[in-house]
Design a protein that fits this description.
Layout lengths: L2 E5 L4 E6 L2 E3 L4 E5 L4 E6 L2 E5 L11 E6 L3 E6 L2 E5 L2 E6 L5 E9 L2 E2 L3 E5 L6 E9 L2 E8 L3 E7 L2 E7 L4 E3 L1
Length: 167
């Protein structure tokens, strides 16, 4: 599948629990297009690599984008993939991503977490990483606002948000 499990337009108050996605084409999981109040609980993205035998490009294990509100990922895992772990961003469209919580999530790939924003029209704000684990890179761009990191273990942090709290 292009995206294996997605919550998109009109998705409100939804949950994915104990799901496992492997060998996806672009994204394993997605929350987009103003979806709100979505919870991923103990979901796993694994076993998807860019190889000649498996066509396409593995982009994000999770993509959270395009005006979402109140998305929570609890105890979700990314492993054994060439895709980015957890990606929070927009595709250059005017939107605000707000209220994303990563709680005890684990990303065992090179780019563990990517939290991006472009400008005042395409924003990402109110993001929490609580007790997460990523031995690779955690990147937060300068357009992101109100990012909090509480606990956790990370290999490398590249942080440039407007407001950041690290505990």
């Amino acid at each position: 599948a292009w995206v294996s499990l997605a919550f998109d337009r009109e998705s409100v108050d939804c949950e994915a629990r104990d799901c496992s996605v492997s060998q996806w084409h672009n994204d394993a999981y997605d929350a987009a297009s103003s979806a709100r109040n979505i919870h991923f609980l103990r979901c796993r993205a694994h076993n998807a690599h860019n190889t000649p035998e498996f066509t396409g490009f593995r982009d994000g294990s999770w993509e959270i984008e395009e005006g979402i509100q109140n998305i929570t990922l609890t105890e979700c895992v990314v492993e054994d993939t060439s895709a980015t772990g957890f990606k929070l961003r927009s595709h250059n469209s005017v939107s605000v991503n707000r209220g994303v919580r990563f709680v005890r999530c684990k990303s065992l790939v090179y780019y563990g977490f990517m939290i991006e924003a472009l400008d005042h029209d395409t924003r990402t704000e109110d993001v929490l990483l609580k007790d997460c684990y990523a031995p690779g890179i955690v990147m937060v761009t300068g357009g992101a606002d109100d990012v909090r990191i509480e606990g956790g273990v990370f290999g490398m942090l590249s942080l440039a948000p407007r407001r950041l709290q690290v505990k």
